[in-house]
Amino acid sequence: MKRNYLFLTVAALLVFGMALSACSSAATEAPAAEESAAMEEAAPMEEAASTCSDYVLVPKNLGNPYFDTADTGAQEAAGELGITVLYQGPATADATEQITLLNSLIAQNVCGLAISADDSDALVPTGKAAMEAGIPVVTFDSAIAPDGRNFHVNQAVAQDIGAIQIQMASELAGEAGGQIAVLSATSTAPNQNTWIEVMKEELTKDEYANLELVEVVYGDDDDTKSYNEAQALFTKYPDLKVIISPTTVGVAATARAVTDAGLIGQVFVTGLGTPNQMREYVKNGASPEFALWNPGDLGYLSVYAMHALATGEITGAVGDTFSAGKLGDYTIEDDPDLGLNVLLGLPFIYNADNIDDFDW
Known about the structure:
- The protein is an alpha/beta fold.
- It has 2 domains: 54-155 and 295-344, Response regulator (Rossmann fold, 3-Layer(aba) Sandwich); 158-292, 3-Layer(aba) Sandwich (Rossmann fold).
- The chain contains 10 helices and 15 strands.
- It has helices at 2-50, 65-81, 95-107, 124-132, 158-173, 190-202, 223-236, 248-260, 275-284, 295-310, and strands at 54-58, 84-87, 112-115, 137-140, 151-154, 178-184, 211-218, 240-245, 268-271, 289-292, 321-323, 329-331, 333-335, 339-343, 348-351.
- The strands form 4 sheets. A 7-stranded mixed sheet has the order 2-1-3-4-5-14-13, sandwiched between helices. A 4-stranded parallel sheet has the order 7-6-8-9, sandwiched between helices.
- β3, α4 and β4 (137-140) form a beta-alpha-beta unit.
- α8 packs parallel to α9 (275-284).
- The longest helix has 49 residues, at 2-50.
- It is elongated.
């Protein structure tokens, strides 16, 4: 009896030990299985992030030759980087419309946004919302205020842009000088307003004492309104010598108005334009010279900038450097007025001697 009892006890202990071992093994395998499942679940998300390819270039408005040229450069950069850059903007240069579009793009969780702001301050909350959603925000041409973007892709130094337009106006007015006017885009466009302030500062210099700024008017980057505003200036100021229009829509409309009014040689137009839209007016004398950077290069650089942010090549801090294909390397700098930015380069003067060298 004692032997049988001892045998049963030992057997029970062996079975109990095997059960404990099995439980221990199951407990060890469970976390591993859970971890494996979690990794499998996370893998598609990581893959989606690494293959993110949809970026968006957002102009002030569609149908604007300046921004169409920027998009051409953006598409060139996209091809080099192997990404998709969508070109989407409001129908008119209106901040409310632009904000509605941007909110939709943020909801779609696009990879990055390059924006030309219709209103510097109004777009700050929208820019913040994009960045909080993990979407890099760079601005080009016209900046959102610093709190609403990572950094700005600056087409040229504001001082240089404003100064060169007064220089050209002075040359066109001649030694006698005379009355000049400015026909700008919208009254809220931050880049236009900055350049106009620089122009006013330049006009205080002794060398421009013979120039009188009589008025600043706004065509809202609308061809018809800009044309009509130019005609109103002819009527209001019969001795007007030069109209400066620091906007591609306005400068072409103003030059056409001068041509249609038979005022070539009496009223000169200068400002910022593109070669293809201004070629006719350079050659007929309505606008003998104008200036601009290359908006194609501006769009190209903007795409490289937001891609560098999205891929982690840069964080957007002062001193960060990134490569922008054919344009070379760029370094983020901090400007006391503009904030974090990279600089494309200096404006270029187009005239009858070089206008046919360019086709954009």
